[in-house]
């Protein structure tokens, strides 16, 4: 059984629906990458899963139950984490406090998880006392990911983790995502660096107009001339 | 020497008293703004309400024949704080929460809080009348006098018992708040929500709980500030409504949403006010001996007449908004 499965999800922000039947299935071992033109509903899909907007149709199965319209404070303890695209760190709080906030729903001792995050992002260990707002864009992205990992999620959702980063950092953040996945965390992410991200995706989804247009492995989508022409810029 | 003693009594002690009251009030205003993003206009009346609750409890204790070495209004403070906090939670649940649930704009909430102001003031007048009450219920106000004759002063440094208690309580509360905000899980969650409410929600922080904690802190601190003000001055229905402007000025000058800023802002405004209405002739009088006849100091050399004290807070507020709109500490208002 898939870790998470979206079946014909319909939803929006109150007006006309933005998602008109999105289907997706991700396993624990998967890295799922959502690509598509601007306004396709990629971010909206992640927000719908995370209960940040109203789902009016379809089901979202996670851990054996329909979590559609559940709120984050219920979803995080269930093993779901989300890194929004923008404003994804608490700028006035230290790196360590940011990580602690990611563990807010945990009542057990999370120092192991914090060590694990610091091992993954050694720079953050050096800057643990520094306000997150003073870090570079790439380091902030690490704080944001670290925060989301502190709840020990089984599925980590990321909205354009490479946005605004220099090419060197893009490679680094993609490598980190693959490392996190190897440690047993399923990944579902939206990416504008589509070709680069699909290259390591085990599942790829091309979204347009709030619907799946193409679904396959990352390699299949890159190889598909139709997809390449319309969505990957030739 | 007497001039210095006069300065200490009139500026240092008065300024600290006023600063403590402003700071405790402004912390509440700034926390509510940080978490709920609206200007809680009724905060002054929450202070008044807290003072009246302490008054009722103290009167009840006195009626039972309880006599203690400290003012009863002070003894009952912990209980009064709890009651005020519960009422603050009730006010939020009854008036503000339904508006928030409907996605009301901050200005709507502000207007609702003006309604709450009128309601509290009306209720207080209905129950206690519009006159002035003494929270001392039969006890005299003790005054400590620090003899300064060893330093050549003919007058003592004098501080009243409630003033002394207020310094201690304010210091303790500020330390407790600091520890809460920097050490506890919930305190950090509160800072997180003030910093970025959407991300706090995404992190799984129980934002409804944070809102409740905010009201508990704001309500109980308002109770302390109101009671202290009543102990220092007198108890009346418009006790704290009159100082809503300096309290908001303190919160804004300190940087809205920033608890430490509110404390700094509170003392800054209080000392500015105290210094502005201080009669400088009292300290500079010795200069009359060396100044030529034509340049003798006038009898009253205050920068601002006492009745215009409120303008000081207003001027500081306007200057802050013009020069550094985010406040001394970078506030959350932008
Ligand atoms: N908070 C909102 N309220 C109302 N409509 C919104 C909101 N956020 C997004 N939309 C609308 O939903 C549609 C899909 O937006 P979405 O953010 O999901 O696109 P996207 O695929 O992530 O695009 P991009 O590549 O630009 O990030 C757009 O038409 C957008 O205008
Ligand atoms: Mg998007």
From TrEMBL, chain A:
Protein name: Branched-chain amino acid transport system ATP-binding protein
Alphabetic keyword roster: Amino-acid transport, ATP-binding, Nucleotide-binding, Transport
Residue ranges annotated for the ABC transporter domain, each copy included: 4-234
SMART domains: AAA (SM00382)
Domain of life: Bacteria
InterPro entries: AAA+_ATPase, ABC_transporter-like_ATP-bd, ABC_transporter-like_CS, BCAA_Transport_ATP-bd_LivF, P-loop_NTPase
A GO biological process held by the record: L-amino acid transport
One Pfam family per UniProt: ABC_tran
From TrEMBL, chain B:
InterPro entries: ABC_transp_permease, BCAA_transport_permease
Alphabetic keyword roster: Amino-acid transport, Cell inner membrane, Cell membrane, Membrane, Transmembrane, Transmembrane helix, Transport
Membrane topology category: Multi-pass membrane protein
Transmembrane parts of this sequence: 12-36, 48-68, 74-95, 107-128, 164-181, 209-233, 239-256, 263-282, 302-323
Keyword hit for Transferase: no
GO molecular function term, any single one: L-valine transmembrane transporter activity
GO biological process: D-alanine transmembrane transport; L-alanine transport; L-isoleucine import across plasma membrane
Organism superkingdom: Bacteria
GO cellular component terms, A-Z: plasma membrane
Localization: Cell membrane
UniProt record similarity statement: Belongs to the binding-protein-dependent transport system permease family. LivHM subfamily.
Protein name as it appears in the record: Branched-chain amino acid transport system permease protein
Species annotation: Devosia subaequoris
Lineage: Bacteria, Pseudomonadati, Pseudomonadota, Alphaproteobacteria, Hyphomicrobiales
């Amino acid at each position: 059984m898939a870790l998470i499965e979206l079946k014909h999800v319909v939803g929006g922000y109150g007006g006309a629906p933005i998602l008109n039947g999105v289907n997706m299935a991700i396993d624990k071992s998967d890295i799922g990458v959502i690509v598509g033109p601007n306004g396709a509903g990629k971010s909206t899909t992640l927000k719908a899963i995370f209960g940040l907007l109203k789902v009016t149709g379809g089901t979202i199965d996670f851990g054996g139950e329909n979590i559609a319209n559940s709120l984050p404070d219920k979803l995080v303890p269930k093993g779901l984490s989300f890194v929004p695209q923008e404003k994804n760190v608490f700028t006035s709080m230290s790196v360590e406090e940011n990580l602690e906030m990611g563990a807010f729903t945990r009542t057990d001792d999370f120092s192991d998880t914090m060590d694990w995050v610091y091992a993954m992002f050694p720079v953050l260990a050096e800057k643990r006392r520094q306000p997150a707002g003073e870090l570079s864009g790439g380091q902030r992205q690490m704080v944001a990911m670290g925060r989301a990992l502190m709840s020990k999620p089984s599925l980590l959702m990321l909205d354009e983790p490479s946005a605004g980063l220099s090419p060197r950092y893009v490679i680094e953040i993609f490598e980190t995502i693959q490392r996190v996945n190897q440690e047993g965390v399923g990944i579902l992410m939206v990416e504008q660096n589509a070709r680069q991200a699909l290259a390591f995706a085990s599942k790829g989804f091309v979204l347009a107009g709030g619907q799946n247009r193409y679904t396959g492995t990352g390699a299949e989508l890159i190889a598909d001339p139709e997809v390449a022409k319309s969505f990957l810029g030739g | 020497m007497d001039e210095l003693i006069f300065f200490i009594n009139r500026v240092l002690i008065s300024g600290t008293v006023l600063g403590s009251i402003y700071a405790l009030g402004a912390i509440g205003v700034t926390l509510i703004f940080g978490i709920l993003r609206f200007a809680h206009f009724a905060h002054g009346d929450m202070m008044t309400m807290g003072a009246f609750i302490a008054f009722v409890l103290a009167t009840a204790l006195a009626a039972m024949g309880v006599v203690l070495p400290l003012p009863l209004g002070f003894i009952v403070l912990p209980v009064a704080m709890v009651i005020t906090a519960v009422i603050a939670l009730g006010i939020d649940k009854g008036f503000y929460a339904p508006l928030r649930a409907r996605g009301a704009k901050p200005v709507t909430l502000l207007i609702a809080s003006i309604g709450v102001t009128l309601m509290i003031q009306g209720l207080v007048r209905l129950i206690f009348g519009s006159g002035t009450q003494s929270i001392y219920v039969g006890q005299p106000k003790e005054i400590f006098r620090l003899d300064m004759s060893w330093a050549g002063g003919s007058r003592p440094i004098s501080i009243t018992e409630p003033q002394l208690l207020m310094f201690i309580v304010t210091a303790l509360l500020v330390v407790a708040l600091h520890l809460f905000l920097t050490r506890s899980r919930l305190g950090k969650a509160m800072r997180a929500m003030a910093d970025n409410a959407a991300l706090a929600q995404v992190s799984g922080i129980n934002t409804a709980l944070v809102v409740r904690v905010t009201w508990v802190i704001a309500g109980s601190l308002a109770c302390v500030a109101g009671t202290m003000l009543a102990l220092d001055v007198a108890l009346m229905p418009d006790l704290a409504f009159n100082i809503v402007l300096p309290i908001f000025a303190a919160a804004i000058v300190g940087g809205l949403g920033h608890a430490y800023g509110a404390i700094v802002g509170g003392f800054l405004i209080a000392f500015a006010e105290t210094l502005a209405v201080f009669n400088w002739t009292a300290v500079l009088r010795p200069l009359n001996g060396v100044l030529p006849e034509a340049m003798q100091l006038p009898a009253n050399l205050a920068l601002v007449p006492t009745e215009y004290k409120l303008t000081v807070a207003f001027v500081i507020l306007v200057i802050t908004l013009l020069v550094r709109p985010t406040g001394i500490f970078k506030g959350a208002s932008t």
